[in-house]
Design a protein that fits this description.
Elements: H1 2-32, H2 39-55, H3 60-83, H4 91-113, E1 128-131, E2 134-137, H5 138-160, H6 162-172, H7 174-179, H8 184-210, H9 219-230, H10 235-260, H11 264-279
Antiparallel strand pairs: 1-2
Helix pairs in contact: 1-5, 1-8, 1-9, 1-10, 2-3, 2-4, 2-8, 3-8, 5-6, 5-8, 6-8, 9-10, 9-11, 10-11
């Protein structure tokens, strides 16, 4: 039982890292219906910008502030230069635009900061400590705390602020929101800026965990099962989906791996997501699509 709890808790805490990437997808999709495939590249760009500034002698907090400004500017630039001219186009056009944008961001990051691998230190040791006989990673707890604060902050922002209410109105019915005088372009600019902020937080955590390298952008693939299970429009759903994916892949690797074969951890989340697509395509907390004919 102690070993089972260690695997379960370790998997759930690892799943929180997937949720951090999924937050950016949810923000964009909830407001505009665009699946932002460039979110992984934004995570890479944020981490690479921060660690490069630190290595060039800028202090931790100054580098963090500069990286935050860079990600806010990147989000605004993407919305204004790429997405705004494509408003009203079919969803596949917007998806292909974000797919191409991911390669542009990766190329820009390589041209600006180089392609070498960097180690990123946040001052949080990845040492385990015992809680009732169960070993828990300090870094995973720190990541879980960051995710909790982020979810709480975004939820309060959506529910309590005027801008958050506008965003919810746009997400429910863009045409009705325009009819009552809501500036859709301003709302989308705010959302893309928030996506840049989320990308920075996720990039710092993932960079500290696995190093800042260009394969970091592939973390976007791990967020896909999280979104399918939790729902593309729910921030709490991204957390629950991440916990389920993290726990299930670790448990499957430990208990089913010896029977089925190694490498189960890599494809089991997608098999689980496929089952959800069959039986609950809108996810646990997503909104069911309703079309009038």
């Amino acid at each position: 039982m102690q070993f089972f709890l260690e695997v379960l808790i370790g998997g759930m805490l690892a799943g929180v890292m997937y949720s951090m990437v999924a937050f950016g997808f949810v923000l964009i999709y909830k407001a505009s219906g665009v699946f932002n495939f460039a979110q992984g590249a934004m995570v890479l760009f944020a981490a690479l910008t921060f660690v490069s500034l630190v290595e060039r002698g800028l202090g931790f907090w100054l580098a963090l502030a500069a990286s935050l400004l860079a990600m806010l500017a990147l989000g605004l630039l993407i919305e204004r230069a790429v997405l705004r001219p494509l408003v009203g186009r079919p969803p596949i056009v917007l998806f292909m635009a974000t797919l191409g944008l991911s390669y542009v961001i990766e190329g820009g990051a390589q041209a600006l900061w180089g392609s070498q691998v960097h180690a990123l230190e946040l001052g949080i040791d990845d040492r385990p400590f015992d809680v009732a006989g169960v070993s828990i990673s300090q870094f995973d707890l720190f990541a879980a705390a960051c995710a909790g604060l982020l979810v709480t902050g975004l939820s309060l922002w959506f529910a309590r602020t005027r801008t958050g209410l506008r965003l919810r109105a746009v997400a429910d019915d863009p045409l009705a929101a325009l009819a009552v005088g809501i500036d859709l372009r301003r709302v989308l600019a705010v959302v893309w800026s928030l996506a840049g902020l989320v990308a920075l937080i996720a990039g710092l955590l993932w960079g500290a965990r696995s190093g800042v390298q260009f394969s970091l952008s592939l973390v976007v693939l791990k967020a896909l099962p999280v979104l399918i299970i939790g729902g593309f429009t729910s921030i709490p759903g991204a957390v629950i989906g991440g916990l389920l994916i993290g726990a299930s892949e670790k448990l499957a690797e430990v208990y089913l791996g010896p029977v089925i074969g190694s490498g189960l951890e890599n494809w089991f989340p997608y098999a689980l997501a496929l089952l959800f697509l069959f039986f609950r395509p809108h996810g646990l907390f997503g909104q069911r699509a309703v079309q009038r004919v």
